[in-house]
Design brief:
Largest interface: A-B, 43 and 41 residues
Helix content of chain B: 40-55%
Strand content of chain B: 5-15%
Shape of chain A: globular
Pfam family, one (chain B): DNA_primase_S
Strand order of the largest sheet of chain A: 1-2-4-3
Protein name (chain B): DNA primase
Distance between the termini of chain A: 39 Å
Helix content of chain A: 55-70%
Radius of gyration of chain B: 27 Å
Oligomer: heterodimer
GO molecular function (chain B): DNA-directed RNA polymerase activity; metal ion binding
Largest sheet of chain A: 4 strands, antiparallel
Largest sheet of chain B: 5 strands, antiparallel
Shape of chain B: globular
Structural class of chain A: mainly alpha
Number of helices of chain A: 26
Radius of gyration of chain A: 28 Å
Order of helices and strands of chain B: HHHHHHHEEHEEEHEEHHHHHHHHEEHHHH
Distance between the termini of chain B: 37 Å
EC number (chain B): 2.7.7.-
Number of strands of chain B: 9
Number of helices of chain B: 21
Keywords (chain B): DNA replication, DNA-directed RNA polymerase, Metal-binding, Nucleotidyltransferase, Primosome, Transcription, Transferase
Chain lengths: 512, 535
């Protein structure tokens, strides 16, 4: 762990101890105090703990973090997340306020130590660092919001963030603009609140999320942050400091490797933090399926709505925009279409392009997604992996003329209903269910609802015969999984049993 | 990442292309401009380059010398008394064909040559343009932020699209002169500008660890393309534009300039016409250049109002009260909406287009009333239809009619029909390539000129100087009676002058800011001193 000078005794103080003795003496540190329940984790822990504690505390924290991440993948609202996390936090990482009678010190110590242990475990690669700082930020935000107001304010003032408070004159000058940022739509109340509201002025780069969502007034590069949004400032600061610290930890970590007691634990910890972000592990090939460029039109009946929409758009326009091609190519790759076949498919699909244009502008991209060309790491990794629902839902919302994305999310209800009806889903109850799911932002559920409706007969048979295991009937969270399951169900009985048993949902898990 | 999946031609200057053998023989007949006097390498530039780029190869040294000798002789023969006729001593006004069309050096009459017969691709026209008109020095200063070369320029990536459409990525140069020379050697039809990297892009392969080569900074860029307005413009579509739909660009520029200037406090914003149907913005402030991807995404998000594609129905859904930036944008756009959209575009004249408008209104009873009214009088103009909304709402307002919801819907509609539609991916990525200013658009032959925002409304994309036109203008230029003290640069003889003047003043304020105005004396000397060489 990193040692920072201020934790140690004054380095300039004259050393009276004989250095030969001092070398083996215990270093003395300042006692760690925990005045607030929240922490920026600035100073590493210094006291001794047992190996069991070391491992147990880390595992407990990991449990909380993994669950938090799962919440974000499921698109839970902040309120839902808080509700969902409360019992888990109470069990694994309780953190009481100063006023409570609980074992405050022990709780905070565990929080402090577990954080630093996980820092060690997750500092090694850039990916891990990013994920760790993302979930730690989520945890911090959750706790920050849950904390008692008075203690939170005390905590904020202890941070010494340099905020400039907006003067009354300036507030009056921009009164209308500022009002627009504090008001939440109830016209009359605003006038009173503008004077009570305190604003602080910071560089806009310190509150990126507030700027991006247009929640603050901007003038000449300064953001005017109302008090209720100051959380964002604190959280950004937390993330920034954590990221910086993680970099430092990564650099210091090699010197720890000589300790053969901790390294195995740390390695184990970082491995158990693999993404629940549904990696589609199957190599795709399904026995009995003929997956060739020519057969895609035929297979399209098994595609989830997102892919059949791109497919239809491609057939209709003879073209797809960049992200549409990317999403669709990866999907096709996932169902087991070989590179050659895929190139053939696109060559025929982009029918308005000349041979020359195709070779110049498209061939390379397809090969790149298959890992046939490109940088070393791309080739070694076999290109990109097919997009999961999570990725399709959250990244690159489609813009004008683009056909990628998730129809359940990115279409409005009328267009979605039209699309569903065009695909043969006419059942009123199902459409109503989809609408409700969409309103609640449960896009997975809507997709699965449609899946169940379309395959209702096969599913019933499969259940009756007991061919499908429970795992295979879980919620689908990957377009390729949708295809696989759909294909297997429709071809029930034609496909050898062995394939059905090990194919399916085992590798993709996410309960709803 | 997906955007960078482009074919990469990693040609180094020495291995790029094959040598054109017949070149030596031909060069005997070539008139040469005074580049010959510079270096051996420069001599080769005088070889006419038709389809393929000619390059110097190992073992060709002797031939080159030979060539040079021949050329020297020819120089005297052909240019007796005229030897100052070129871009660096641009005093001589007439007889420019020699340099313009070396393929017909022996033509008896100077009127045989008509540049307008040649296309923008014509390598000779392009060569003259790069040689005589392209503002290399200001481009250098613009990217370098100082008169003397810094890493901002030396580690900057240039990407060339060669006449055979191959790409050359990761080119970098130590000075504007070297850049100019290489451009003349390769004759790219398009030059893109990439980011400044942590190490010299040419040396990236020599690095031990890959992480040592990463993009550090680039101007914050915006790209607006009229094709994104296809669903609301009625006058043109696809790549076509006219002055009516160009007004969308005027609106976009006003709104974005206000955001960048007033809200984010950026000062050095330059808009560049992309040559056909779009415009680019380059923000050169130091803070803006050094922003990472996440910061760029924030600005993009702040600006983004029109979301979703054609399928997502109503494309503007804003929270109320409106953010101050949107209130201001609405103020800017209101007038344009009346004039440039309702009157000029008349977007809802036909019933099916009017239906689109109806779908954006909140009240079903109101929609029905309006539909009835419009069905009974077909061909009603968009302005009247727009006015009808309020009129009908007033008369047929039911008990639970929500006037506020209607007002908000109307605001959303105004924004949907006027607010800038950005190609947002250009702005989000630090390492996105963007076409350099002053490049020739290969399709239209127009120069990608910077546009003075103060006079944006006067800008007419259809009358932007074209390559052919410019060359003709140089030829037609007559020296004024009173000789100027300084030699007249070729660009000063053409309609490119105001654009280069604007570019120069933009670059000068940028450099001044960058330096904090501290070392003024030295800069002036630099300005005077090396002007000749760099041109």
């Amino acid at each position: 762990m990193i040692r920072q000078d201020f934790n140690r005794i004054d380095p300039k103080r004259r050393n009276v101890v004989d250095h030969r003795k001092k070398q083996f003496a215990d270093p003395s540190y300042k006692e760690t105090q925990y005045p607030h329940s929240l922490s920026f984790y600035a100073a590493p822990p210094t006291a001794d703990i047992t190996l069991e504690e070391f491992e147990q505390w880390a595992i407990d924290r990991l449990h909380v973090l993994a669950e938090l991440e799962a919440c974000s993948f499921r698109n839970k609202s902040p309120a839902e997340t808080t509700l969902h996390m409360k019992p888990l936090l109470d069990k694994y990482l309780p953190l009481d306020t100063n006023s409570s009678s609980g074992p405050v010190f022990a709780q905070r110590q565990k929080d402090h130590y577990s954080h630093f242990i996980l820092r060690l475990a997750f500092c090694s690669t850039k990916d891990l660092r990013q994920r760790f700082s993302r979930v730690e930020t989520m945890l911090f935000r959750l706790r920050f919001n849950a904390d008692d107001t008075r203690e939170r304010n005390a905590f904020i003032s202890s941070l010494n963030l340099d905020w400039e408070t907006v003067s009354d004159e300036e507030k009056r000058e921009y009164a209308t603009e500022l009002m627009a940022t504090v008001a939440s739509g109830f016209g009359k109340k605003i006038h009173q609140s503008i004077d009570d509201e305190t604003f602080c002025k910071v560089d806009w780069m310190r509150v990126p999320d507030l700027v991006e969502s247009r929640k603050v007034f901007l003038r000449a590069g300064k953001a005017y942050v109302p008090s209720k949004e100051q959380q964002s400032l604190v959280v950004t600061e937390f993330t920034a400091r954590l990221e910086r610290a993680l970099e430092l930890t990564a650099r210091a970590r090699p010197s720890l490797d000589e300790d053969d007691r901790l390294t195995p634990i740390l390695d184990h910890l970082s491995k158990s933090f693999v993404a629940p972000d549904s990696k589609y592990a199957g190599d795709g090939a399904i026995e009995g399926a003929v997956i060739t460029a020519r057969n895609i039109d035929n297979l399209a009946q098994h595609f989830p709505m997102c892919m059949s929409h791109t497919h239809r758009t491609l057939r209709r326009d003879g073209h797809l925009k960049h992200f549409g091609r990317l999403q669709y190519t990866l999907f096709l790759k996932g169902i087991g279409l070989s590179l050659d076949e895929c190139l053939t498919f696109w060559r025929q699909g982009l029918r308005r392009k000349t041979e020359d244009e195709f070779n110049k502008e498209y061939r390379y991209n397809v090969r790149h997604t298959y890992g046939d060309v490109g940088g070393d790491s791309n080739r070694r990794g076999g290109g990109y992996s097919p997009y999961s629902c999570q990725k399709i839902l959250t990244e690159h919302a489609p813009g004008a003329g683009e056909a990628h994305g998730c129809p359940y999310r990115h279409f409005n209800m009328e267009n979605l209903a039209g699309l569903l009806q065009a695909s043969g889903v006419n059942d009123r109850a199902v459409l109503q269910g989809v609408k409700e799911d969409k309103d609640k932002q449960k896009f997975h559920l809507a997709c699965n609802r449609v899946f169940e409706h379309v395959h209702r007969n096969e599913l019933k048979r499969a259940k009756d015969d007991g061919v499908m295991t429970a795992a295979q009937l879980e919620t689908i969270v990957h377009p390729n999984e949708y295809f696989k399951r759909s294909f297997l169900l429709k071809n029930l009985g034609k496909v050898p049993q062995s394939q059905q048993r090990d194919g399916g949902g085992g590798d993709v898990k996410m309960e709803e | 990442m997906p955007h960078s999946l482009l074919p990469i031609t990693e040609a180094s200057p020495s291995s790029a292309v094959e040598m054109d053998e017949p070149a030596v023989a031909e060069s005997a007949q070539q008139p040469v401009d005074d580049d010959i006097a510079m270096t051996d390498a420069a001599a080769i530039e005088n070889v006419p380059q038709t389809e393929e780029t000619v390059d110097k190869q190992d073992g060709e040294e002797e031939k080159e010398k030979e060539k040079k000798e021949i050329s020297d002789v020819k120089l005297e023969d052909l240019f007796t008394g005229d030897s100052d006729e070129d871009d660096e001593f641009p005093n001589a006004p007439a007889k420019k064909e020699a340099a313009n069309s070396p393929s017909e050096p022996s033509s008896p009459s100077e009127f045989d040559f008509d540049p307008s017969e040649l296309t923008a691709y014509d390598p000779e026209l392009l060569r003259s343009f790069y040689q005589r008109l392209f503002p290399w020095r200001y481009l250098f200063q613009w990217l370098n932020h100082s008169p003397t070369p810094t890493l901002d320029f030396e580690h900057r990536e240039f990407v060339f699209t060669l006449p055979n459409e191959a790409w050359m990525r990761y080119q970098s140069y130590r000075s504007s002169d070297l850049l100019r020379k290489d451009v003349l050697r390769l004759m790219p039809t398009r030059i893109d500008i990439g980011p400044v990297y942590s190490t010299n892009p040419r040396e990236r392969k020599a690095l031990q660890n890959v992480a040592g080569f990463r993009p550090l900074s680039k101007e914050l860029c915006f790209d607006i393309d009229l094709t994104d307005y296809d669903d609301i413009r009625t006058c043109c579509d696809k790549a076509n534009i006219c002055n009516k739909c160009w007004q969308f660009m005027t609106m976009a520029v006003k709104v974005i300039t206000a955001v960048l200037g007033d809200d984010f406090g950026f000062k050095h914003i330059m808009w560049v016409y992309s040559g056909r149907r779009g415009i680019h913005a380059w923000v050169s402030d130091k803070v803006a250049r050094n922003m990472d991807d996440s910061k760029r995404r924030v600005i993009a998000g702040y600006l983004e109002v029109i979301t979703g594609g054609a399928q997502s129905g109503k494309r503007v859904n804003l929270r109320r009260p409106l953010h101050p930036h949107l209130v201001r944008s609405l103020d800017i756009l209101k007038g344009h909406f009346q004039e440039d959209v309702l009157e000029a575009q008349d977007p809802w004249r036909s019933p099916d287009r009017a239906e689109k408008l109806l779908q954006l209104l909140p009240d079903i009873a109101l929609r029905d009333a309006l539909r009835k009214k419009w069905d009974s009088s077909p061909g009603r103009s968009s302005s009247s239809k727009w006015a009808d909304i309020d009129a009908v709402a007033k008369t047929s307002a039911g008990k639970n009619f929500d006037a506020k919801a209607l007002l908000e819907a109307k605001q959303d509609i105004v924004l949907e029909y006027t607010y800038p539609r950005l190609d947002i991916n250009v702005s989000k990525k630090l390492n996105h390539l963007l076409k350099s200013p002053f490049v020739i658009h290969p399709g239209t032959g127009r120069v990608c000129v910077p546009i003075d925002t103060r006079k944006f409304e006067e800008f007419d994309p259809l009358s932007v100087p074209t390559l052919q036109g410019l060359i003709r203008e140089i030829d037609a230029w007559v020296e004024p009676e009173v000789k100027a003290e300084k030699p007249v640069q070729d660009w000063e003889k053409t309609s490119l002058k105001p654009y280069i003047d604007y570019f120069r003043s933009h670059v000068n304020t940028l450099m001044k800011d960058e330096r904090g105005g501290g070392v003024k004396v030295k800069r002036e000397r630099d300005d005077e001193g090396d002007g000749m060489e760099l041109w």
